[in-house]
Amino acid sequence: MSLAAPFAAALLRDVAVAPAFVRLPRLRTSVGGEDGSGDEPVFRHWGPRIRARSASAGGGRASLAVSPLRWRKEGGSSAKRGCAALSSGNGADSRRVSGGDFVVVSFYRFVRVENPEEEVAKHLAFLKDLDIHGRIYLNEQGINAQYSGPLADARSYFEWLREDDRFSDILIQISPALSGHAFPKLKVQFKPLVQVDGGIAHLPLLNTSMRATPLEPSEWKKRVLALSRSRDASSGNVDSDCIILDLRNGYEWDIGHFQGARRPEVDCFRSTSFGLSETEVNDSDPLADVNKEKTDVLMYCTGGIRCDVYSTILRKKGFKRLYTLKGGVSHYLENEGPVEWVGNLFLFDSRLSLPPAAYNPRSATQTCDLQHAIKNEKFAKCYLCGSVVQELRHRNCANLDCNLLFLCCPDCVSSFRGCCCSTCMTAPRLRPVLPGHQRYEKWHLYRDLEIQPS
DSSP string covering 45-82, please? Predict the structure, then answer.
């Protein structure tokens, strides 16, 4: 019996079962496709899986094949269910899982890539025979990858990558997959590693001295605990010589963050501009009036890449004492647990969020509590009625043309039929109300489908 079995059992107990669908004759023509642009999967929908078929030896375009959709059976999913609790890091220890368990892997590295399009073709050629879904971006500045797959295939890819001297010591982060693949398909693309207004091609990302100084999770814990004691001693006043800065999107913050952290009142990291204005002082800017020479700015994000990018921007603006949480929150939770962290960690895949216990089980035989309920925390509120939500996971508005990501209590889900407002309830392209906090699939799957009454 795999040592991962207790973790899998805990995960599978609470995986919501999809409703039964019945295929109906097509009664109308298409009302238009969905926008596949953008960089955040919360605004995407499931689609057919794309697999690499071949790549030319000369580094030309690799051909892609679209695999047929696997239809969901009544009462369940066609995907293989499984999970694992893993140690990550440079060693990527996999002793606690079996080869059939599904895992999610993420990593990034800023390094000079001379021929990124050839690099894309090379990666596609290697991945063509592996059961890998996810997003892998390459360009002249390096690589940024998040993908899911069976453990054996997931390991094969990052071990192959580490054979390249440029990536030999890359930090690999591995987390449990809740139900088969966490991504709908595989995309390996030549594109910017992070989406920021104005782009990142001009930023000195390859110059480590221009990026923030990385702090190991243990050092970060010492710093945040010291700040916590300082707040307690001064009745909540924040130490003006040190601030904790959250560089994530608003919806990420809503379900979990570090105690005492600050963030601007913006919804999306892509358009973040705090700390950059030379002429205006915005009351919501946590870096307004900060002493650029003397203030320690401790930045964090999910996996670390956004902090590396934004710290180069702040460095160019004169900020001297910049620090980042190495490996991001996921690496911290794995190594230190939820010390000074409240809530769950938002994820850009089908899992939507994970509690700290998923990253740092106390033992291989411990039943991993992956319930998404809040424990003695009341910071997360229903978007519609303001009541405390009991599950720290978002849902998308059932109105396809809105698709707002929001927190919602069960009563409002029922009353508003999965929509974020009464206006959306009468929209022309309404999708069914999904049980639990699932992800919507492509519109054409709902256009001609009807949910069987319960």
Answer: -B---EEEEE--TTS-PPEEEEPPP-PPPTTS-SSPP-
CA distance 247 to 206: 20
- Residue 310, in any domain of the structure: yes
pLDDT at 361: 64
What pLDDT sits at residue 365? 35
pLDDT at residue 272, as a whole number: 54
Q: Which residue has the tokens 């990527």?
A: 92
pLDDT of amino acid 206: 97
Which of 301, 368, 382, 409 is the catalytic position? Answer: 301
In angstroms, rounded to a whole number, what is the distance separating the alpha carbons of residues 303 and 312? 17
Q: What is the pLDDT of residue 445?
A: 82
In a domain, 368, yes or no: no
Domain containing residue 391: 373-436
Same domain for 284 and 318? yes
Among the candidates 328, 343, 358, a domain finishes at 343
- Are 336 and 218 in contact by the 8 Å Cβ rule? The answer is yes
Is residue 177 in some structural domain? Answer: yes
Residues of the chain with pLDDT under 50: 1-87, 91, 93-99, 274-275, 277-281, 363-369, 371-376, 451-454
Give the number of domains in the chain: 3
Could you tell me where the beta strands, DSSP code E, fall in 34-177? 50-54, 63-66, 102-110, 133-139, 142-150, 173-176
> Which 3 state secondary structure label does DSSP give 446?
helix
The answer to whether 148 and 181 have CB atoms below 8 angstroms apart is yes
pTM tops 0.70: yes
Answer whether residue 361 is part of any domain: no
CATH number at residue 73: 3.30.70.100
Active site residue 301: yes
pLDDT for residue 216: 98
**Contact predicate 244/262, CB 8 Å:** yes
pLDDT for the residue 236: 56
- Together in a domain, 15 and 150: yes
Do 221 and 185 lie in one domain? The reply is no
Angle CA(186)–CA(248)–CA(387) in degrees, nearest 5? 105
154 and 235 part of one domain? no
